[in-house]
UniProtKB/TrEMBL annotation:
Residues 7-101 form the Pyrroline-5-carboxylate reductase catalytic N-terminal domain. It comes from Enorma phocaeensis. SUPFAM superfamilies: 6-phosphogluconate dehydrogenase C-terminal domain-like, NAD(P)-binding Rossmann-fold domains. Residues 165-259 form the Pyrroline-5-carboxylate reductase dimerisation domain. Transmembrane segments: none annotated. Signal peptide: none annotated. The keyword GTP-binding does not apply. It catalyses: L-proline + NADP(+) = (S)-1-pyrroline-5-carboxylate + NADPH + 2 H(+); L-proline + NAD(+) = (S)-1-pyrroline-5-carboxylate + NADH + 2 H(+). Keywords: Amino-acid biosynthesis, Cytoplasm, NADP, Oxidoreductase, Proline biosynthesis. InterPro entries: 6-PGluconate_DH-like_C_sf (IPR008927), NAD(P)-bd_dom_sf (IPR036291), P5C_Rdtase_cat_N (IPR028939), P5CR_dimer (IPR029036), Pyrroline-COOH_reductase (IPR000304). Its main location: cytoplasm. This is Pyrroline-5-carboxylate reductase. Pathway: Amino-acid biosynthesis; L-proline biosynthesis; L-proline from L-glutamate 5-semialdehyde: step 1/1. Its EC number is 1.5.1.2.
Length: 262
């Protein structure tokens, strides 16, 4: 099966599930009509799916029945209660988990014998620029593994990690967009302080962040070397770097990850 033929169902249709749906639709490879979803509030779900050309389902059993790939996108504490009643419907289905903290061993405990892969994506999947951390341990066969990698590859960069690293990989990839948004907001405020209109400030800063990231990916340069390349001896940039170091910028980012993982 190829991505254009597969039918994908979401159990839960919150921010992450809708971002994935938007990304698949935007890719042009997965027709909106091949996407199904159920959620706690059906009326609101109908509005959200209809605007995308998707199909609204009343419950998890309807989603599983309609789909080839089932995306588990409910809160972790709800998973067991949602999946156990429909466990008998998963024969021939592929399960893609996007629930933080749930690994292969957890799914084997709740719905043993099913074919599943645990992942942690981030919200830029909505524009096919995401990072998707995938657990190396899974129960997929070769064909299913190829299909899910193809589907996830449409949404961004897929990074496979050991089970013990899935949490921190998901934290760095999944939570950091919030941190970078704060950086964009702060630099935008600084630009506004000196007279640049806010919309232009955000456009400049966001493009700077995107361009810097793309440059690193394209060249493979160490971030420190990229920083050094902008810092002339006695120049303006090195003074800004010194101020950030004095303010503990690096330590603050590391502590943010510690706060989540700790």
């Amino acid at each position: 099966m190829v991505s254009s033929q597969v039918k994908i169902g979401f159990i839960g249709f919150g921010n992450m599930a809708s971002a994935m749906a938007d990304g698949w639709i935007a890719s042009g490879k997965v027709p909106a009509g091949h996407l199904y979803a159920c959620a706690g509030h059906y009326d609101a779900l109908v509005e959200r799916t209809a605007s995308r050309g998707m199909n609204a389902c009343h419950d998890a059993s309807e989603v599983v029945t309609a789909s080839d790939v089932v995306v588990v996108a409910v809160k972790p504490y709800l998973i067991e209660g949602v999946l156990a009643p429909v466990a008998g419907l998963f024969a021939g289905k592929t399960i893609l988990s996007v629930a933080a903290g749930w690994k292969s061993e957890d799914y084997e405990r709740v719905i043993p014998g099913t074919h599943h892969l645990s992942t942690v994506p981030n919200t830029p999947v909505a524009i096919c620029e995401g990072v998707i951390a995938c657990e190396a341990a899974h129960t997929l066969d070769a064909g299913e593994y190829t299909l899910l990698n193809e589907l996830l590859g449409l949404l961004g960069t897929v990074v496979e990690v050991e089970s013990r690293l899935l949490s921190v990989a998901g934290t760095v990839g999944g939570c950091s967009p919030a941190f970078i948004a704060m950086v964009i907001e702060a630099l935008g405020d600084a630009a506004v302080k000196y007279g640049i209109p806010r919309a232009k400030a955000y456009a400049m800063v966001s493009q700077m962040v995107a361009g810097t990231a793309k440059l690193q990916l394209a060249t493979g340069q160490h971030p420190g070397a990229m920083k050094d390349a902008v810092c002339s001896p006695g120049g303006t940039t090195i003074r800004g770097v010194a101020a950030l170091e004095e303010a503990g910028m690096r330590s603050a980012f590391i502590k943010a990850i510690d706060a989540i993982e700790g």
